[in-house]
Amino acid sequence: MKVTVLFDEESLTPDLKTGFGLSLLINETVIFDAGSDGDILINNIRNLKIDTEKICAVVLSHDHWDHTGGLDSLLSILKKPTIYLCQGFGHKYDHCKPKIKRLCVTNSTPVKITDDIYTTGEIYGTYKNIPISEQSLFIVRPDSTVALICGCAHYGIAESLELLLKKIGDYLGRHISVNCLIGGFHLQHESDTYLRYVLEKFLYFGIKKIVPLHCSGSNAKRIFHDTFSVGFHDLKVGSTLEL
Ligand SMILES: [Fe+2]
Ligand SMILES: [Fe+2]
Question: CATH fold of 2-242, please?
Answer without folding.
Answer: Metallo-beta-lactamase; Chain A (3.60.15)
